[in-house]
Automatic annotation (TrEMBL):
Identification of the protein by name: Ribose-5-phosphate isomerase
GO molecular function: ribose-5-phosphate isomerase activity
Similarity remark: Belongs to the ribose 5-phosphate isomerase family.
Pathway: Carbohydrate degradation; pentose phosphate pathway; D-ribose 5-phosphate from D-ribulose 5-phosphate (non-oxidative stage): step 1/1
Keyword annotations from UniProtKB, A to Z: Isomerase
Alphabetical list of SUPFAM superfamilies matching this protein: D-ribose-5-phosphate isomerase (RpiA), lid domain (SSF75445), NagB/RpiA/CoA transferase-like (SSF100950)
Classification lineage: Eukaryota, Metazoa, Ecdysozoa, Arthropoda, Hexapoda
One BP annotation, GO: D-ribose metabolic process
Keyword Membrane: no
InterPro entries per the UniProt record, alphabetical: NagB/RpiA_transferase-like (IPR037171), Ribose5P_isomerase_typA_subgr (IPR020672), Ribose5P_isomerase_type_A (IPR004788)
Origin species: Ooceraea biroi
Top-level taxonomic group: Eukaryota
Catalysis performed (reactions): aldehydo-D-ribose 5-phosphate = D-ribulose 5-phosphate
């Protein structure tokens, strides 16, 4: 084997090692954030909303451990098909909003959280059900790794704000958003099927990559929500009470808001 080949292989191995180390750090960050939230906010005889995404997997894992060890009586309400399967796979008690319209807390991930606790959610396509469940909870708790913590929206998350829309209206909605606020709103395309992503509710998703000078997210969220054909936005404004961020050094950063639900 030539010296050049050895050098190339060494560089590849080093790159793989660095990538694996980073992935391990991220997964550990997700885990410690999720465990902290479940330990702090889930109590006996409560109904808990279970969010969607990779960080929530660790929350459900910890919840299952506590239910077994502490014999907790907890009912879990899912926000998606994925969340429902997680609940069933971990042999937790499955509920729904018809039977349990008021939740004690909801634990979910986020694509980005800014300094004012505004959230972007919906990277996994479950924004509508996630927002419904969160709105029914007395306490809405976010769990995430350190890459989701930003000063302002768009600083870390570059894929844009998801907007769930009725299929027949996606073109006029896209044009309305772009003409009013700027940026680019593109329909989300599926990876393993031909055509657009279809949500659990049978709708399409526009991912709006917005200009960096926008700041009044409460106003923007309200205005976009009122466009005919918009089902829901991935902007979660004045909803989350607490966010737990797992950090790269193994600590957990907590961020709070002034949200108070009755």
């Amino acid at each position: 084997m030539s010296r050049l080949s050895v050098h190339v292989i060494a560089r590849l191995l080093h790159s793989v090692s660095r990538t694996s180390s980073k992935m391990g750090s991220l997964e550990n960050a997700k885990k410690i954030a999720a465990y902290n939230a479940v330990d702090r906010y889930v109590q006996n005889n409560t109904v808990v909303g279970i969010g969607s995404g990779s960080t929530v997997v660790y929350a459900v894992q910890r919840l299952a451990e506590r239910v077994k060890e502490e014999r907790l009586n907890v009912v879990c309400v899912p926000t998606s098909f994925q969340a429902r399967q997680l609940i069933l796979d971990n042999r937790l008690t499955l509920g729904d909003l018809e039977v349990y319209p008021k939740l004690d807390c909801a634990i979910d991930g986020a694509d980005e959280v800014d300094a004012e606790m505004n959230l972007i959610k919906g990277g996994g396509g479950c924004l509508l059900q996630e927002k419904i469940v969160a709105s029914c909870a007395k306490q809405f708790i976010i769990i995430a790794d350190y890459t989701k913590n930003s000063e302002k929206l768009g600083e870390q998350y570059k894929k844009g704000i998801p907007i769930e829309v009725v299929p027949m209206a996606y073109v006029p909605i896209r044009r309305k958003i772009e003409d009013t606020y700027g940026g680019s709103a593109k329909i989300r395309m599926a990876l393993s099927k031909a055509g657009p992503v279809v949500t659990d509710n049978g709708n399409f998703i526009l991912d709006w990559q917005f200009p960096g000078n926008l700041t009044d997210w409460n106003k923007i969220n309200t205005e976009i929500s009122l466009i005919p054909g918009v089902v829901e936005t991935g902007l979660f404004i004045n909803m989350a009470e607490k966010a737990f961020f797992g950090m790269s050094d193994g600590t957990v950063k907590e961020q709070s808001s002034n949200v108070q639900k009755i």
